[in-house]
TrEMBL record:
This is Formimidoylglutamase. Catalyzes the conversion of N-formimidoyl-L-glutamate to L-glutamate and formamide. Mn(2+) 2 binds at D152, H154, C243, D245. Its EC number is 3.5.3.8. Belongs to the arginase family. It catalyses: N-formimidoyl-L-glutamate + H2O = formamide + L-glutamate. CDD domains: Formimidoylglutamase (cd09988). Its cofactor is Mn(2+). GO terms for molecular function: formimidoylglutamase activity. It comes from Chitinimonas viridis. It is an enzyme of class 3 (hydrolase). Keywords: Histidine metabolism, Hydrolase, Manganese, Metal-binding. NCBIfam families: hutG.
């Protein structure tokens, strides 16, 4: 179900005596409308049905609201327009409908020249985001080669009849095969204890590229960035998806499955910057923010910092 933006959420401190350079997001963000000039469009995906189906800890349906509240007070260092394009809300267990609706909204934003930044929501967000990008490609009349860059402790390539937060990239792989699109998937931060051998096998079968959490360190940055650059060279468009459980549990406790090890924030930010620097980034989302398990709002703040950086 789609809900238009509730601009009452965008509240915070006003430093009026400092003039226009002291503005914050809540003062600059605009409600999306169909004739809005191209900009970054925030779209919430209020959903944890996939997390529930995946036996995780529910709470991520409140993620978009917590993320907006954390973004509201951040300093505005941005050029251009940023819009709140509302929420897609999952009703009960109607995950498939919610993903289809998310896809429609993402396509709508892309067709009008915007950069959609989708705020989750469980990682089931990825299937809906991708559907939107794939439909946009179809409407453009040429199927581009799309590369998916996932920052995540998990492959999320699980098998099974029903979709969940553990299956989106396997579903995307199947959708690509059905539409004669290549499946190009690169994951940074894979935890070996957090993914079964079956998942590593599936990743190999599908030609997935990955770097483990222990490899995603500052002293290996050159390799990490080279890998991203080679990957980006082979595709026309990039879709960046950030699963907050890629970060150490001490940095991001407010997720369904906090990481024992995790990738440090500075590495995550460098990878985000590198994805942006390719000039091919069409779409991004931030998944798994779960305010019910957050500590002092710190995970929401980290998620907001990443959204801030993506939008910059
Ligand atoms: N989106 C999360 N997916 C993970 C969750 C792992 C866990 O709950 O421990 C997965 O299915 O592997
Ligand atoms: Mn994960
Ligand atoms: Mn994930």
């Amino acid at each position: 179900m789609y809900q238009a933006a509730d601009m009452a959420v965008w509240q915070g401190r006003v430093d009026a005596e400092e003039g226009p350079l002291a503005r914050r997001w809540h003062e600059c963000l605009q409600a999306f409308h169909d004739d809005a000039p191209p900009g970054t469009a925030l779209l919430g995906f209020a959903c944890h049905a996939g997390v529930q189906r995946n036996h995780g800890r529910p709470g991520a349906e409140e993620g978009p609201l917590a993320l907006r509240k954390a973004l509201a007070n951040l300093a505005w260092h941005h050029e251009g327009h940023i819009y709140d394009a509302g929420n897609v809300r999952c009703v009960g267990d109607a995950l498939e409908e919610a993903q289809q609706e998310l896809g429609r909204q993402v396509t709508h934003l892309l067709q009008r020249g915007h950069f959609p930044l989708v705020l989750g929501g469980g990682h089931e967000i990825a299937y809906g985001s991708f559907l939107g990008l794939a439909r946009h490609a179809e409407l453009q009349g040429r199927p581009p080669r799309v590369g998916i860059v996932n920052l995540d402790a998990h492959f999320d390539l699980r098998a099974g009849e029903r979709g969940s937060s553990g299956t989106p990239f396997r579903q995307i792989a199947e959708a690509c095969a059905a539409n004669r699109m290549s499946f190009n998937y690169l994951v940074y931060g894979i935890s070996e204890p957090g993914n079964t051998e079956a998942l590593f096998h599936r990743a190999r079968e599908l030609g997935v590229q990955w770097r483990g959490d222990e490899e995603c360190t500052r002293d290996r940055m050159e390799d990490l960035l080279d890998t991203l650059a080679f990957f980006a060279d082979e595709v026309d468009w990039l879709y960046l998806t950030v699963c907050l459980d890629v970060l150490p549990g001490s940095v991001a406790p407010g997720v369904s499955a906090p990481a024992a090890y995790g990738v440090e924030l500075s590495v995550v930010e460098a990878l985000i910057d590198a994805a942006k620097a390719t000039g091919k980034l069409m779409l991004a989302d931030i998944a798994e923010l779960n305010p019910a398990f957050d500590r002092d709002g710190v995970t929401a703040k980290v998620a907001a910092r990443l959204a801030w950086r993506i939008a910059r």
